[in-house]
Write a structure and sequence with these properties.
The protein is built from five helices and seven strands; from the N terminus they run E-H-H-H-E-E-E-H-E-H-E-E. The protein has 176 residues and is α+β, with helices and mostly antiparallel strands.
Amino acid sequence: MAGVDDRILVREAGPTDTEALAALAERSFRQAWAAYNDPADMDAYCAANFRPQSVRADLDRHDVSVLLAEADGELAGYLRRQSGPAPVCVDARSPVEISRVYVLQPWHGRGPAQALMREALAGSAQAGHDLAWLAVWQRAAQALTFYRKCGFVVVGTTTFRLGSDTQDDFVMQRRL
């Protein structure tokens, strides 16, 4: 499916994308958060979540799908979504979690994030989900602005563990 323009393509990741997705996931996560977090906490989180084995195990789950954004023929970003239970503050019959919405810095503001979110929300609605929810760091101003533009509203709070650091997140939701 075409994204914001003909240079952006959104597609579902498969097993052959494991290595590239692992590299993209770690690189984009570090670009987003390394300046705000202890290097040891970043290393611990990345080692636990972005090794090719961890990424492949995630891709093999029936309740998880990962969308990739390709821009000018290169991977520019990705989005992970997962069916299943949601926090109690989320009011839905069939929720889907949107997580790990990351775009490499050269592509910020140029369409891949919007294309990923548009495809994720449309696909989730087609699959019968009535609501999308996500958790976002309370200090992530750029992400909060993006999610609000996508129609998400804050409905609660939760915590996120990055290595040894417990961080405060907002829980946001959007009807589909």
